[in-house]
Amino acid sequence: xxxxxxxxxxxxxxxxxxxxxxxxxxxxxxxxxxxxxxxxxxxxxxxxxxxxxxxxxxxxxxxxxxxxxxxxxxxxxxxxxxxxxxxxxxxxxxxxxxxxxxxxxxxxxxxxxxxxxxxxxxxxxxxxxxxxxxxxxxxxxxxxxxxxxxxxxxxxxxxxxxxxxxxxxxxxxxxxxxxxxxxxxxxxxxxxxxxxxxxxxxxxxxxxxxxxx
Length: 213
Hints:
By secondary structure, the protein is mainly alpha-helical. The chain has helices at residues 7-19, 23-27, 65-77, 96-106, 134-146, 151-157, 163-170, 175-178, 194-201; strands at residues 34-35, 40-43, 59-62. The model is unreliable at 173-189 and 205-213 (pLDDT under 50).
């Protein structure tokens, strides 16, 4: 996918991938939410932007070293902006799904078999259900689970208050694992590889990926 994205699309969708964020969380993310020294994305309420974490829990998500370099370059290009991904008016952008589906159609990535509620087929329209923002979130959860990150840590990173949603994200969580304490974890040691995340994202999408986040 990232072989055909432009600079803006790469910044946006790689950010969604490495943080596992929902659309509103990404659209209201500010430069103050990134700790460039610890390489973390900070989960913290942004009440003036009408956003708070779903379970009200704050903390940090480790960001790959190579993505930190990319986001630092973006910061240099946008020194006056508070938001990382503002719209043309400097406000939170609210059309990331539309951008992703337009990208998929533009680059011939649609599956060709989807039909939405309006009867529009993705064979000729930007409506392919395989290209939803949930795909980044699903990939984030699956990657970390496959690499040994405790489920409750993934749950915290996804800002979920229930385990059921995390089970749906990973598709392979067992009850016994959820019952185990996480212990003292150094999130920095769990920092993923951006290339590995991108590689997993490029795998054929699973038809069981949930639509709702």
